[in-house]
Amino acid sequence: APQAMDSFPVEVRVRYREWLEDEDPTNLMESAGLRNLFSKVVNAIGCTVTGLRDIGRLVPMLTKLGGRHISYSVSEGYWEVLGRALDMTLRDILGEAYTQEVRRSWQMVYSFLSAVMLDGFRKAKQREESEGGSLDERGSVHTFGSD
Questions:
Q1: What is the torsion angle, in degrees rounded to the nearest 10, for the CA atoms of residue 86, residue 17, residue 115 and residue 70?
Q2: pLDDT digits (tens, 9 = 90+) for 81-99
Q3: Exposed/middle/buried for residue 114 (C-beta within 10 Å: 0-12, 13-18, 19+)
Q4: Rounded-to-integer distance, Cα 18 and Cα 98, Å
Q5: Rounded distance, CA 73 to CA 67, Å?
Q6: Rounded Cα distance, 53 and 110, in Å
Q7: Rg (CA), the chain
Q8: Within the chain, where are the H helices?
Q9: Contacts for 120 with CB less than 8 Å, ≥ 6 apart
Q10: pLDDT band at 141; cut points 50, 70, 90
Q11: Assign residue 139 a region: left if phi > 0, alpha if psi is -120 to 50, beta otherwise?
């Protein structure tokens, strides 16, 4: 999807590539970093499905994961674009096996995951703004002069 190009610039993809791999920054479709990142998304969805048995642990984990995305310079629209990219990828990979029932199941889990992560993202953003600093990947606030 063209929107994915903007959501996953080379500086984001480089964070997820293997050190021994060279990557053409102009070729998003062959990006090892993007494949690695996407495998993390699919893994998070799998953990969400498994974690539904213990919602009391799942929601805080997803909230914290969403909050960490504040340091990745993503916008709220990232989750929608990622959801569309996931849908397109599953359709391509599964072909005829990607029935409406299968599609609805993936969409339901992704909608839940992204809603909880967005809540964590928004809370982290509010905390960052109220404390006048920036959050690192762990969600800790760093203010100017506090290093």
A1: -150
A2: 889 888 998 999 999 999 9
A3: buried
A4: 30
A5: 11
A6: 16
A7: 17
A8: 2-7, 10-16, 32-51, 55-68, 77-94, 100-131
A9: 62, 63, 64, 65, 66, 67, 69
A10: very low
A11: left
Phi, psi dihedral angles at 98 (to 5 degrees): -85, 75
CA 61 to chain centre: 13
Tokens of 132: 């006048």
Q: Which amino acid does the sequence have at 119?
A: D
Structure tokens at 112: 């839940």
What tokens does 35 get? 């494949």
- The Cα angle at residue 110 between residues 104 and 114, in degrees rounded to 5: 145
Q: What does the mean pLDDT of the chain come to?
A: 78
Number of Cβ within a 10 Å radius of residue 57:
10
The residue type at 112: F
> How far apart are the C-alpha atoms of 31 and 16, rounded to whole Å?
10
Report how far residue 57's alpha carbon sits from residue 41's, in angstroms, rounded to the nearest whole number. 19
